[in-house]
Amino acid sequence: QWNEMFHRLISYKNQHNSTSVPYNYTADLKLATWVETQRANCRNNSMSDHRVNLLHSIGFVWNAQDNKWDELFQRLVAYKNQHNGSTLVPKECEADTKLGRWVHWQRYNYRIKMISVHRIERLESIGFVMNATYACVLDGKWMETYDRLVAYKKQHKSTHVPHTYSDENNDIRLGRWVATQRTAFNQKKLLEKRKDLLNSIDFAW
């Protein structure tokens, strides 16, 4: 029974690159409960050294705080996959405010040397920018608005966003942002990588 659950955890890790199974993981609630039980057994010194070593060998997360960090790390990986490889999450990320704040604190903890080498290595392994400058934050905001334009195009089949357009949150900034990109392009001030991204969705210059 234990070995069967251990191998289910290995399968989970292979799929999610993590051993932190959320307690509400509906795809396998039994596995989520088993993972919590292993932590409790370790705290109570009621687990054999053999099992402890097996769990250690696959990078098992013993501490609940580490588990929370790992959960947000996975959300950062998902953000990167959805945003053309970018880990520049704005601090006030509209899609995931908790992730935006978490990313901000990772950089802050790095500056004051309050983050472990292991966590630094994990963040850098996915291309995370530890020394984020103001320009990086601005780039993150640009990408966030770009993603809103991509969503607009999927819905309206066009990148012609009216200047007065407002979304479901009564946010009118997308139309202004689009106009700003055209102005920057006409004045030859638009970064090449931004122009390439806009061209990739057939932006109407």
Automatic annotation (TrEMBL):
Domain Helicase-associated: 1-60, 65-128, 140-203
Top-level taxon in the UniProt lineage: Eukaryota
Protein name: Helicase-associated domain-containing protein
